[in-house]
Amino acid sequence: MTGVSAAEWGLPTRCAPWNVSELLAHVRVVIAWLPGMLAAPAPSCAEVSAVEYYRPDDRFAPGTNAARIALAQDHAAEQLSGAALADDFNATWQQVDRLCQAEPEGRVVRTRHGDPMLLSEFLLTRVVEVAVHGLDLADALGREPWLTSDAADLVQGLLLGPDGAAALEKLGWGQLRFLRTATGREPITREEASDISRLGIRWLTLG
């Protein structure tokens, strides 16, 4: 994102009404929840998995979505330029990485929605956010997807379980196409949707 031109920061994305700068600001916001979560008292036990985090409740209601949109737009507007926004995102993820590396295995956190989760499970939801919105940003900018194989494997595992690779091979789909389709980023036919459902996919509710 550090190589994005001034004009490109204003390009529209599929995540309307966000443009490129606002979508990157959103990705920064979803990472930036972690310092406060780690500073808060740890719940006694985890009750929600990464899959359950994406359940269809009020976290994806119109009012919550509107607040999510406004928060990203406000953060983007606070930055003097797209380059400053990219630098801010870089500093944010590095801070979060240092904090998470210092936590013990089995650390439990409470999300802003009130979910007690293993830190590792919540971080998996952050990989989902970075991965799928990375596809959105690359598409908006007309670039080749920069999704890493590690991130793709984690999101695929979340959606299909440990046998996902074998299931995809039977379907004859590439990993990138599957991830685009399973997260609503590529249209499919009714027959293709039926094929995906037979894989035992864990459908996620995405705002």
UniProtKB/TrEMBL annotation:
GO molecular function: metal ion binding
InterPro entries documented for this protein: DinB/YfiT-like, Maleyloyr_isom, MDMPI_metal-binding
Domain Mycothiol-dependent maleylpyruvate isomerase metal-binding as annotated: residue spans: 3-138
Superkingdom, natural source: Bacteria
Pfam families for the chain: MDMPI_N (PF11716)
Record's protein name: Mycothiol-dependent maleylpyruvate isomerase metal-binding domain-containing protein
Source organism: Streptomyces olivochromogenes
